[in-house]
Amino acid sequence: MTTFASGTDTLTRDALTVLQPGFTGTTAPEWLLRRLGEGLASVGLFGRNIASREQLAALTAQLRAERDDVLVAVDEEGGDVTRLEVRVGSSFPGNHALGAVDDVDLTRRVAHELGRRLAECGVNLDWAPSADVNSNPANPVIGVRSFGADTELVARHTAAYVTGLQAAGVAACTKHFPGHGDTAVDSHHALPRIDAGPSVLQERELAPFRAAIAAGTRAVMSAHILVPALDPDRPATLSRRVLTELLRGELGYDGLIVTDGMEMQAIAATYGIERGSVLAVAAGADAICVGGGLADDETVRRLRDALVTAVREGELAEERLAEAAERVRDLARWTASATAADASAGASGDDGIGLVAARRALRVTGAEGFTPLTEPPFVAALTPVANIAVGTETPWGVAAELSRLLPGTETGSFAGEEAGRAALEAAGERRIVAVVRDEHRHPWMAGVLDMLLAQRPGTIVVEMGVPQAAPRGALHIATYGAARVCGRAAAEVIAGA
């Protein structure tokens, strides 16, 4: 069992227990191991911490050698948001593709296999799934991370995902409560606002969270969004009305409440991370996620001291902090028993399920008159600015998979008003495969497609975002996500594989 460092008082230990910090590097730094000995109970991992499954397993073993019940969390949604396969692209399609198939058993199987791989590497808490209803097509941060725009569909797949993931011994963290789907602002950059009325919120935003709670989700992540119908003054992460009265009281949820990253500008630029963390715990949050951007010992010390000071000055009830810390320890106990149960059941892998799902998700328009390519094409990737949740490290598109099927395939990345001319010049006489992401949100992208199709009517279009724009091109393939397996499924259609 873990032996805590002497001299760490209960209040300080509880303040450390509620933090979920990150760090840099692929091995645990000395300061992190020391904090685990002082009471830190959770660690958040990001793409920068993961080089391979073998390295990840060694890293989590290093953490557990210091504290055997540590919660190791990761932001692994599959699809566009992957940390386990950050450098190669995910073996699993994301939520939007699963929603397009609308087979809840398939969703459960995908989540279980993803959970199995995480558990195999020593990860026991996944900041997933996204239960947001993507009701606003202009949403810049959710999009294909959502199962869709239909509330009932999102609800049933959220429940299936939670069930599959937790059956593998990995705690699900359903997000972003009370729902981030109807926003046109990314909370990484500013504070979004949802002006829906109470009845719409009840029927649309909250329904998937009710389903997740009914399915037994062990954690829920709060959103940094202002919802005036629920609380006109404070964003959900800092709102007692949202976290305690609504989530705990009305919805009856009794598991762990985790905040979204406190260094996101919606909080950091308005309240600051120290003040924000104190307000979040006072509002009902049990764990403070920080480390996507700020990932050092100084951040841990600042937040620990802010919580301790708030208790000593009477701003934060010591009982509330103790309750939050106990919920963290409860989840740690659950993961230990759930992982052991999964291992004893001899859980077997379902390695091909991600590709099966990606193939089933494809929507192909124009296949009747299309002849698969036999010569290597030119792939023009019309590349928008990636949102922070997705990041820029993870490759996307169809070029790599087409190169495997049609050796000699060339590719280029293009953006902006001049992208069309540049793509035509780069392509030469080759057949063009234009790959887009959310054409409907980027006027320049739609203009480039207009030009390419006017000049080259045989151009193939692959939409790897939300397929909101009307299908066009000699062949149009909607993949409902940009995961590696989605690119492979599309490439198979193009090459007739």
What does this 3D model show about the protein?
It contains 18 helices and 14 strands. With 497 residues, it is an alpha/beta fold. The strands form three sheets. It has a six-stranded parallel beta sheet, with helices on both faces. Helix 14 crosses helix 18 and helix 15 crosses helix 18. The radius of gyration is 23 Å and the shape is globular. The relative contact order is 0.13. The mean pLDDT is 93.
Distance between the termini: 54 Å
> Which range best describes the helical content: under 10%, 10-25%, 25-40%, 40-55%, 55-70% or over 70%?
40-55%
| Derived structural class | alpha/beta
β-sheet strand percentage: 5-15%
The geometry reads as globular
* Cross-sheet strand order for the largest sheet: 2-3-4-5-6-7
- Summarize model confidence as the mean pLDDT: 93
Summed up, the helix count is 18
| Number of strand elements | 14
Whole-angstrom Rg: 23 Å
Low-confidence stretches: none
Main beta-sheet annotation: 6 strands, parallel
Identify the notable features of this structure and list them briefly.
497 residues, alpha/beta, six-stranded parallel sheet, six-stranded mixed sheet, 18 helices, 14 strands, 42% helix, globular
In short:
With 497 residues, the protein is α/β, with parallel strands linked by helices.
Question: How would the blueprint of this fold be written?
Answer:
Elements: H1 10-17, E1 19-20, H2 30-38, E2 42-45, H3 53-66, E3 71-74, H4 95-101, H5 104-120, E4 125-126, H6 151-167, E5 171-177, H7 198-205, H8 207-214, E6 219-222, H9 240-250, E7 256-258, H10 265-268, H11 273-283, E8 288-289, H12 297-312, H13 318-344, H14 353-361, E9 363-365, E10 378-382, H15 399-405, E11 410-414, H16 419-427, E12 432-436, H17 443-455, E13 460-463, E14 475-478, H18 484-495
Parallel strand pairs: 1-8, 2-3, 3-4, 4-5, 5-6, 6-7, 10-11, 10-12, 12-13, 13-14
Antiparallel strand pairs: 9-14
Helix pairs in contact: 1-12, 1-13, 4-14, 5-6, 6-8, 11-12, 14-18, 15-18, 16-17
